[in-house]
Amino acid sequence: MELVLEADGLGRRYGGTWALRECSLRLPAGRVAALVGPNGAGKSTLLHLAVGLSRPDAGEVRVFGHVPYGNTELLAEIGFVAQDTPIYRDLTPEELVIMGGKLNRRWDATLVRTRLAQLGIPPGRPVGKLSGGQRAQVALALALAKRPRLLLLDEPVASLDPLARREFMQSLMGSVAESGTTVLLSSHILGDLERVCDYLIVLHSAEVKLAGPVEELLEGHRQLSGPRAAGARPIAGVAAVVRASHTDRQSTLLVRADGDPIDPEWTVRDVTLEDLILAYLTDDTVTRASHEAWGVPA
Ligand SMILES: Nc1ncnc2c1ncn2[C@@H]1O[C@H](COP(=O)(O)OP(=O)(O)OP(=O)(O)O)[C@@H](O)[C@H]1O
Fold first, then answer.
1. How far away, in angstroms, is 42 Cα from ligand 1 center?
2. What confidence category does residue 276 fall into, taking pLDDT thresholds of 50, 70 and 90?
3. Under 8 Å CB-to-CB from 168, ≥6 apart: which residues?
């Protein structure tokens, strides 16, 4: 199995605070991976380390087996669209296509022109005068024109309307299916991820909480509901309770299954990707610490 991205004990610190800590990951080739986590979880930090824009303070990251920091050779293989799509605002899309051709070894100008024409983006208007969503589309088209082997996208659909979002995701999927590009994209829009991603990485408070192929993760978790008292005892078939919520009479648990049959006292159902992400994103210890820092009761 070819690995595109490998991180081992990877960490990045700003001042005394870890933005990413003890991050260990393996992203196999050909995957479309979702990078999910609340604001400030460390997603952009991980993407910046992977593209070589910043240097680790601990551990290491490798892309196609090489250290990305300061590695201009490797940059030719990576397409990156940063969160705020910072493309030159005074240049027009057509000028950016020409510039891209001069700066990149592999450059598919026809691809980018066709894409932008389909999207109705005017070739001659300065990028700074396009809408935020149109700018995001231009940035993605330019990243795809590089024909990268790894495409890193930091919240690419945040500024798009629902229709444009769907179109963006569909065309992204179309392009990567054709080229076999591996994609790592961060997003808060869980519905979109469910449709397109086959690999999931959940970050919370600078740490990886969950990572793996979506199919395996869904297979390894179940949602249980049953009488509240039953939740107090160990449950057959359950390796760990990830998240529990209770009413006076009823308990609902999202659990990691251990492969054995689950105690028939519980009603068992499959989980969706959204159930899984939300369960791993809820972290009461963080909420408590934040309340303490603000001096307000939790
Ligand atoms: N240049 C910086 N200087 C200081 N702290 C930073 C810097 N960049 C990020 N951080 C801090 O590092 C942590 C992780 O930030 P990061 O941008 O990676 O999060 P994120 O998961 O991408 O968040 P969001 O979903 O809001 O984009 C945050 O606590 C943030 O405040």
1. 6
2. very high
3. 136, 137, 140, 156, 157, 160
- For the CA atoms of 25, 30, 36, 40, the dihedral, rounded to the nearest 10 degrees, stands at 60
User: What's the whole-number average pLDDT of the chain?
Assistant: 88
Indicate the fold that domain 3-213 takes in CATH.
Rossmann fold (3.40.50)
CA–CA dist 188, 271 (Å, integer): 19
pTM of the model: 0.88
Which run of H or of E encompasses 35? strand 32-36
Query: What separation in Å is there between the alpha carbon of 67 and the centre of ligand 1?
Result: 22
Q: Is the CB of 19 under 6 A from ligand 1?
A: yes
Contact 184, 27 (CB under 8 A): yes
User: Residue 266 carries which DSSP code?
Assistant: S
- Atom of ligand 1 minimally distant from the CA of 20: 14
